[in-house]
Each structure stands twice: as C-alpha cells, then as structure tokens.
Design goal:
This protein has 447 residues and is an alpha+beta fold. Among the domains are: 1-128, no CATH class; 276-340 and 407-447, no CATH class; 355-400, SH3 type barrels (Roll), CATH 2.30.30.100. 49% of the residues lie in helices and 10% in strands. The chain contains 20 helices and 9 strands. It has helices at 6-9, 37-48, 56-66, 71-86, 92-111, 118-126, 131-142, 148-160, 166-175, 181-191, 197-206, 215-222, 226-238, 248-256, 260-270, 281-294, 299-308, 335-343, 410-413, 416-426; strands spanning 16-20, 23-27, 315-316, 319-320, 355-360, 365-373, 377-382, 387-391, 395-400. A 5-stranded antiparallel beta sheet has the order 8-7-6-5-9, with helices on one face. The protein has a two-stranded antiparallel ribbon with strand order 1-2. The protein has a two-stranded antiparallel ribbon with strand order 3-4. Helix 4 (71-86) runs parallel beside helix 6 (118-126) and helix 9 packs parallel to helix 11.
C-alpha cells in the first residue's frame, strides 16, 4: 500500500472517502493546514474497532498520514497494531512485512524518550525484538511507581518476545508483598504466552508466596500445558498443593492434553473423572442448606470469600469479573435457587454460558466461554476475565464442555465457617456495608 497523499484523498473542503484495505476511512479536508482532527480521530476509531479485528494495511496507511501531525490518532493506530501482533493473528511472514514498513515510521519516536509517541512506539517495536525497545519495556515492567496497566502491558510484550529477563521479573512481581492483586493476576495471565518448562517451575516455586486470590489463576495457568501440569500434579502428590484447588473442569482439561503419563497421574490422584454432572450434588445441597440455616454468618467476611473464589468469574455490586452472569440481579431469587446455582452449577447451563474446550496446535488447552467466533479467529473469555484470541489456523480441536465452567465442589475448598459467611453475603440484597441491606426473599427465611 503506497503512502497516501491527503490532497489526493480530499481535494475540496467538503471532504472525501478513501478505501484502504477494505476498511472505510472518512476524512474531512480543512484547508491548507491538513486533515481535520476530529475526522482523523474518527478514521482511527473506525480502522481499529472492526468487529472481525484490525485490518493492518488500513491502520498502517492511516498511521503514515497522521504520525507527524496527530499524536492521539497515531497512538491509537500504534496500539491497534501492537495488539494485533500480540494476538498471534499475524503470521511470521506478514509480521516481517509489517516490521519493514513500520520500523522507519516509528524510528524517530523510538529514539527520543521525550517524544509523545515514544512509549507506544517502544511497545510496537518490542514485538519484533528491537533491542532498545525491549530494554525500555523491562524498565517499565519493573518500575514500582508504574500503574498496574502500564506494568501489565510491559509484561505482555516481554512474554510474547520470549525475553530472557521475563521469568525473573515475573517471579519478583509475583512474590513481592507490595504487588497489587490486579498486577499479580495480569502477570499470571501473560505468563501463558511463554512456552517452556521454566515458566511452570517458576510459578510452582512461587506458590507458597501467592495470596489466596491469586492461586485460582495460577491453577488456570498450570493446567494449560502438559509440561506445567506434570509439575502441578507432582506437588499435589507430595502434599504441598491441596488437591481441592483443582475443579472438575481442570481435570477434564488435563485429560484433553492426550498425554498418557498425565492421564495416569490424574487417575491415581483423583480417580475416575466425570464428564457429566454429579447426581450426588442434591445431597450436598441439603447438607449445606441445613448448615446455612442453623448458623448465623458474617456477610463482611463472606464478601472476602466471594472476592477470592466467586469473583474470578462473577460480578456482584459492581465487583468481580464479567465472565459468568452478574449475580447482583441473577440467580438469587430464593435460598433454594442460590444453593443450587452455587453448589450444582451444571444442573442448568444457559446457552450463553456453555464452556468450550479448545486445544491449540502448540499444545495449550483452554477452557472458556466463546465471546466471538469467525472464519479467522475465536475469542474466549477465560476464568479471571482474561480474553484470549485464538487464530483459526491455531485451533487443533474445539468442543463444547458438558459441565459448567463454574467448578463443582466449592464446599471442599471452603471451611464450614467460610461457607456460612459466603451465603450470608449472597443472601443480602445490597452490600453488607449498606445499612439498608436486607435478606432477599427466601423459600425459608429462618436464620
């Protein structure tokens, strides 16, 4: 695609339309000074917000137009190209062609740390291994005064680039007491990009230092690759990790690896893994119902339990992740409905919440909800809220899971006290910090 000439695109004050790579870009000519800022911003927005993903040729063409005159639109274009490369949707040959076109465009901003586009250019250049850009990215990943988003984005690039310092920096971030929950979660998510046994070994070594709310994400990571899962099962066998950290969907994921040694270890540690709902859940519901009605709970402590366990996929009162239904207004019409939804999640699974198991050509196994599926890619929502883009040519197999993404056996992960506190929280119509909070209508309101 040739560098576009604004005069050729719009030769009059009334404006014109250009077609670039299949994406419609609308430009308005505002006289000798150049393209109108609002029109350029709209063009950038149109180019990067395509439902089926970014058209790279269109965005590069627009970037060439605005790189020297409109930093806001240029930054949006740089960010879109960076995200496209990180997603894996661009094959190696196309990525090399992009590098050849983009390297000279971003070189001035990359060389000047004070340039308005320096950070965005460094993030993009790091995806093709630019040494100077990777040095800056390492610095940003380690900066304690950086925001969680900035440091998380830096870790994403380091993992994608297979940078030699990535594991050491991630290890420090995971173990540091001052690391926020959000950043620790992001680091664990981004570690999935990096192949190799050392990734799983590092996470397992950091396990004793991980707070409770980070451990489900660590399990999510460790079960995605067979070589990591073998180390996880060895820790469970020696007793340093509780077997109840794994739910049925994790065990089914391990089985999907088609690794005979892994399957043998799962059978030895967990017995036969059911691929359907457990009919014994009804007796569990009766027992927990009696427990909840017999003992008063502390909803404040229950809120903490929710954040640690349920908030990985559900939102309530504006908190948590948007993977499963928002239970502020769903699934809590009565105590019986609440008990069934929490303790027997596979009894009824709405169509929108049927999980899919995707096996990739590089050996990862992902379980999540399909957010988008097209001819070029599938987008999954994983536990913890992460969105994973899987290019169509990277999918070896894909099937619908017969069980809910929400794990059965939550009562095995919690103490009796935590169970009572959790239901005390879930039965309130408002947060426990609200003095007007009341019990939701129940089939039996005894407490």
């Amino acid at each position: 695609m040739r560098r576009s000439n604004p005069m050729a695109i719009a030769g009059s004050r009334s404006g014109a339309i250009a077609i670039a790579g299949g994406v419609l870009l609308a430009f308005a000519w505002s006289g000798p000074s150049g393209l109108d800022r609002r029109a350029r911003a709209a063009a950038a927005r149109d180019a990067v917000d395509q439902p089926a993903g970014v058209d790279t040729d269109s965005v590069v063409g627009l970037l060439e137009l605005v790189i020297d005159s409109d930093p806001d639109s240029a930054r949006r274009c740089l960010g879109a190209l960076h995200a496209k490369l990180l997603s894996g949707e661009v094959d190696a040959r196309s990525a090399e062609r992009l590098r050849e076109r983009l390297a000279p465009i971003v070189a001035p901003a990359l060389a000047d740390s004070g340039h308005a586009l320096h950070r965005a250019s460094a993030f993009l250049a790091a995806t093709w291994g630019d040494a100077g850009a990777l040095t800056r990215i390492r610095e940003w990943a380690e900066r304690a005064d950086g925001t969680d988003a900035e440091r998380g984005d830096a870790f994403a690039v380091l993992m994608f680039s297979n940078d030699s310092a990535a594991i050491e920096l991630a290890n420090k971030a995971l173990r540091a007491p001052e690391t926020s929950s959000a950043l620790r979660a992001r680091v664990l998510e981004e570690l999935a990009r990096r192949r190799g046994a050392e990734t799983g070994a590092m996470v397992l070594s950091a396990w004793p230092d991980l707070p409770a709310d980070a451990r489900p994400r660590a399990i999510e990571l460790l079960t995605q690759r067979a070589e990591w899962a073998r180390g996880l099962l060895a820790r469970i066998e020696e007793g340093t990790i509780d077997r109840n950290e794994l739910g049925t969907h994790h065990l089914l994921r391990l089985r999907a690896h088609a690794d005979p040694g892994l399957a043998t270890s799962v059978g030895r540690l967990f017995g036969t893994v059911r691929a359907t709902r457990d009919p014994q859940r009804e007796s569990v519901i009766r027992d927990v119902r009696a427990l909840v009605l017999a003992q008063p709970g502390d909803p404040h402590r229950g809120w903490d339990v929710f954040r640690r366990i349920c908030g990985q996929c559900h939102r309530i009162h504006g908190e948590g992740q948007d993977v499963g239904p928002d239970i502020t207004v769903n699934g809590r019409a009565s105590l019986d409905q609440l008990l069934s939804n929490v303790l027997d999640p596979s009894l009824v699974i709405g169509t929108a919440y049927q999980a899919s198991v995707v096996v990739t050509t590089e050996g990862r196994v992902l379980t999540g909800l399909v957010a988008e599926q097209g001819s070029t890619r599938t987008v999954l929502k994983l536990q913890g809220g992460k969105t994973e883009i899987v290019p169509a040519d990277a999918i070896e197999s894909m099937r619908t899971s017969p069980i809910s993404l929400m794990p059965e056996g939550i009562e095995q992960q919690l103490t009796r006290r935590e169970l009572v506190d959790l239901f005390a929280f879930l039965r309130l119509d408002k947060p426990p910090t609200d003095p007007s909070a009341r019990l939701l209508p129940d089939s039996d309101t005894a407490q």
